[in-house]
């Protein structure tokens, strides 16, 4: 029998991002725009993340406005071929508590 486990489950580092579900920026995270993209600062964990892609910044800040990550991709005109890279980046943000499933909205 073969068992498949996501990287997040192996690392025990947080939820697995489902692009078909609604996600949002954690309310404890501040976004500071920068010429290269943005800085994200989590006031709870004191973690700082650098987003070095302005499209990723646009995506992260727009997530709460749409019913799913996929719907956000569509609304922002992100092509199918580029989506896996963005899902991977969003997964890393979810693992560090920068993003939350919308169902966990505080």
Describe the structure.
- This protein has 106 residues and is of the alpha+beta class.
- The protein has one domain (17-100): Outer Surface Protein A, domain 3 (Alpha-Beta Complex).
- Helix content is 33%, strand content 21%.
- The chain contains 4 helices and 5 strands; from the N terminus they run αββββαααβ.
- The protein has helices at residues 7-11, 54-62, 69-76, 83-95, and strands spanning 23-25, 29-34, 37-42, 48-51, 99-101.
- Strands 2-3-4 form a 3-stranded antiparallel β-sheet, with helices on one face. It has a two-stranded antiparallel ribbon with strand order 1-5.
- The chain is globular.
- Mean pLDDT is 88; it is low at 1-12.
